[in-house]
Amino acid sequence: MGAGEQRGRKPRADVQRNRAALLETAQRHFLQHGVGTSLEAVAKEAGVGPGTLYRHFPTREALLAAVLQTRSEELVARQADIDQLGDPAEALEQWLRAMEEYFSAFSGLPDPLMAAARAQEPDNPLTIPCDILISATDQYVRAAQRAGRVRASVRGHDLFLAACSIAWIKGNGTEEESLDRLRMLIASGYRQRDAQA
Amino acid sequence: MGAGEQRGRKPRADVQRNRAALLETAQRHFLQHGVGTSLEAVAKEAGVGPGTLYRHFPTREALLAAVLQTRSEELVARQADIDQLGDPAEALEQWLRAMEEYFSAFSGLPDPLMAAARAQEPDNPLTIPCDILISATDQYVRAAQRAGRVRASVRGHDLFLAACSIAWIKGNGTEEESLDRLRMLIASGYRQRDAQA
DNA sequence: CATCAAAACGGATGCTGCCTCCGCATGTAT
DNA sequence: ATACATGCGGAGGCAGCATCCGTTTTGATG
């Protein structure tokens, strides 16, 4: 039972076509109208019936998770760059910004993400990406802590929540200036105070 | 033109009755099902038709604002207690908690509040309460700054956003422990660092 | 108390979106 | 070419929103 599949039959050609069309269309609609966009409209524009959409993606979250897959890979790619940085504090900061942008991909995205982040929702397709992000954040936090740049009481989970909140606020139309101030505030909160006196 | 009204006619009795019934029922439904509750259901349970509901409260936000009025008064009452405190830093902290509880009154409340908080929505009935809260927060911030307990770069608006975010996270079912940590993080962010060395 | 007109009521209505179910067609193996 | 599994898609039931208009209620007036 390795990775190679094909148990019994070859998968039909139309299902792949439809799935691809749905994903492509859904991404466009999520971009334009946010995560609350009409699924019926997505199906129609993808040239399939509602039934087909729901068979491929039983819930809105499932569709969202599938669409997000692409973006997740971009995030991972970014991670490579970030890991090049010598300064772990700088790396953490950049990672937080990267996550924030990821959360801001579609308007309204932070809500389902937060809903999935609280564990005990094992069937929610968004839970896995969330958990990955949280533990990745924790890695950066720990590295920065080892370098004495971040307070010891901080957890990756905390900064995940913070990044998600900021994306949520941003999605509600707050001016970038206010966001910058809030980011500063949070940064002041997690940074280790230099014993400079 | 004082406060006494009665221009032309005496207001009809049924409108007051209906308005009161609607507010009472709406509050219950908001409590039980969140701000997204069915307005039709509210109307039905209040014993009026949908038309009557929409005449009294043209939008969901209008109804929400009216229901929130009561709670706002409780907040103001709390303010009196808080103002008694000698320590302006303690006062700020308590005020933030009070706001957070206010934002958590109904599940989903932070979203419409945030939407109203970005100005340039003068017709949104929630804008006024928001502005009041923001400037009240700013008062507490300034007092604490005068006492040298809060960093100079912080604005009331920032902490308003922070409190709203925390309420939003709370509403999404995150455990209280994570919230506490986040509150700590934010507090570390706005507090003036003591020149203690 | 009877009458009138303004004001408010409320439900029927049209609309949009969600999600399911099942007869039909499409594609794959023999 | 045939058979059969598999997937398709649209019709349809449901719920909620918001509006419009014929009817009722209510306060004012004599």
Automatic annotation (TrEMBL), chains A, B:
InterPro entries: Homeodomain-like_sf, HTH-type_TetR-like_transc_reg, HTH_TetR, Tet_transcr_reg_TetR-rel_C_sf, TetR_SbtR-like_C
GO molecular function: DNA-binding transcription factor activity; transcription cis-regulatory region binding
UniProt entry keywords in alphabetical sequence: DNA-binding, Transcription, Transcription regulation
DNA-binding region range list: 38-57
Boundaries of every HTH tetR-type domain copy: 16-75
Keyword Transcription included in the entry's annotation: yes
Keyword Protease: no
Any Pfam family hit: TetR_C_43
Protein name: Putative HTH-type transcriptional regulator LmrA
Organism this protein belongs to: Streptomyces afghaniensis 772
